[in-house]
Fold this sequence. Notes:
19% of the residues lie in helices and 31% in strands. By secondary structure, the protein is α+β, with helices and mostly antiparallel strands. The protein folds into 5 domains: 3-149, Jelly Rolls (Sandwich), CATH 2.60.120.260; 164-253, Immunoglobulins (Immunoglobulin-like, Sandwich); 262-538, TIM Barrel (Alpha-Beta Barrel), CATH 3.20.20; 566-635, Immunoglobulins (Immunoglobulin-like); 648-741, no CATH class. Helix 6 packs parallel to helix 7 (542-551). It is globular. The chain starts with a strand and ends in an 11-residue tail after the last helix.
Amino acid sequence: MRTVINFNRKWAFSKQANEIPTVIDNKWDFVNLPHSWNAIDGQDGDNDYFRGTAYYAKSFSKQDLPDSECYYLEIRGANSSADVYLNGEKLAHHDGGYSTWRVDLTAHLTAMNMLVIAVDNAANETVYPQMADFTFYGGLYRDVNIICVNKSHFDLDYYGAPGLKITPEIKGKDAAVEIETYVTNGEIGQDIHYVIEDKEGNVVAETTTNDTKVTLDISDVHLWHGRKDPYLYTAKVELVKDDVVIDNISSRFGCRTFKIDADNGFILNGEEYALRGVSRHQDRWGKGNALSPEDHEEDIELICEVGATTIRLAHYQHDQYFYDLCDEKGLVIWAEIPYISKHMPTGRENTISQMKELITQNYNHPSIVVWGLSNEIGIGGSDDDLLENHRILNDMCHEMDKTRLTTIAAVSMCKIDDPYLQIPDVVSYNHYFGWYGGETDMNGPWFDNFHKTHPNIPIGCSEYGCEALNWHTSNPTQGDYTEEYQAYYHEELIKQLFTRKYMWATHVWNMFDFGADARNEGGENGQNHKGLVTFDRKYKKDAFYAYKAWLSDEPFVHICGKRYVDRVEDVTKVTVYSNQPSVELFANGESLGVKESPEHFFYFEVPNKDVTRLVAKAGDLTDESVIKKVDTFNDAYRLIEKGAILNWFDIDAPEGYLSLNDKMSDVISTVQGKMIFMGLVGKLMGGKGKDGKMEAMGFEIGPEMMSMMGGFTVLRLFTLMGGMMDVKFTKEQLLDLNKKLNKIKAPKKKDK
């Protein structure tokens, strides 16, 4: 029988060792797995976290392992490349930091053994990811096991797969379930016993045969139906000889049908089932990628609380336990490989191997409906090598899995006639209109235009969001990092995206703040703060409740702005979110009226004097908060970026004239402003491109690009450009530019 021994405890660890050890000396620390060596330096900014090779070593006696004929080392996550050594002999190498892989130790074990795993997250040109907006945490950050099996056993060698492939086919009210097994060192006289059990453990079908592929029928099948009814069956398989079980494996599965329609979105079991949800990164504050089962459970509970029906598990393969939780909870999943941002001609084989691992290891999960080929890989346009890479992956996905579809996440700058959009079955776009330039109201019309231009391509939104920390204002504006602007942004995006039935899926970027050590912005370096929940999972931002109001059936009412207590205005706006039809707000016991809103967002004008205790009521539900009148704005609410060259409040902005605080669209609407801007572009951003067209960062500045850039203030645009192009603007340069702008009359605002 198969025995799995967890091997997580007491590994010697060193970043200083420079050779494979035979003994452990004082250069080594001791750690338990899961472990990441970038749990601190990968989350503090400046992009200076340690990227290189570190060593994990563990000595053990073979006598301490169960008596068995074969022993496999199973590594469930080593980022991003790793080598395995046993007693000084190199046994295996693996590229790809997010998947399970195994090494046969059997022939190399001795009485006493020294096992060393050298893990390397250094930059290279062959292993993805190499360029992305998240930290590439190094370490053995998931479980390590020893699997003990008979010489004849269900396969452990093929791309980390479970040795069991389950393919249900719905036929009317019944299901035909094909179960395929893979046996290593099979012998004459062996049989395979197949059993399907329902959720309660009752046997619904079984057979014994020497065939490695069978089809079992389930009568009156109970369908897996997303959040509404995530019903799971279990397939159990035993390898038997002379009535003795030699090996056994099992896997849960679900029976369901789905399709994605260009006009009607996602359809589950013949019913329209709107996919509205979030994206998720797997890391945590102070832990990096080294999560516990309890961490995964807390994440799935928060995602379920917000009411999501789908998760994009970005940008790599996630922990098997989390896919299991998605099956149990009924979340519909987009699973993908880290083929992201930068196409590397030398990385093709790695995209193929990582995709094979993703599909073989996750084939049985009913929650997964699409395989993601790439993310923002066409940011600079597509070439022949990139297109061929995508065609290879797309064809391979369909060959390996005839039950699921393929998708990509394109980025705003990717033109909608780019040929790589024609390769996958469905397409989604990452758009940040309203945060990285542009305006919030550009989102819906953009998708309408795509749908009109490509009526047969299902289109979704794979990323949208904006950053928020504990900064606050009564006048939120794009780029201010306030909780209030994030709430406003998501209100607008919800109204635009959720009302467009044709969108096959929408995924907020992101459910949780996450580590991005290259980022130095927002006042807290080393993180991307677009999460609806903070990095430590302790605080749900107001935008979290905006989604809960639209998506969740759990009755609730929530007053926004609880962290924004001190306010200077005499009358202040207070927003309430609820999934109930009406809300009444009380200020110090006095009703401010009852509001109704089909959009679930309720706005009140509240007199602000002394201390005001607010109570929102929606039926029997209540929520409370406090505001306080102050004479001077509380500077603790105002973003002051660490290390910023220039803050917005340091800029001279004479009334009626332009400044660095004005939007680019206003600047270039004037003749003088446009000349200044085009001169800077030519000098700093690469100048003229093909056919004399202006280029920035490798892509053409066309109408769409200009529209996006127009939504930035000049200061924010040049700050972001400086970071992306590694061009540092001095304070003197920016102030000199501001002086030039101060001489130009601002355009008159048009009445809306």
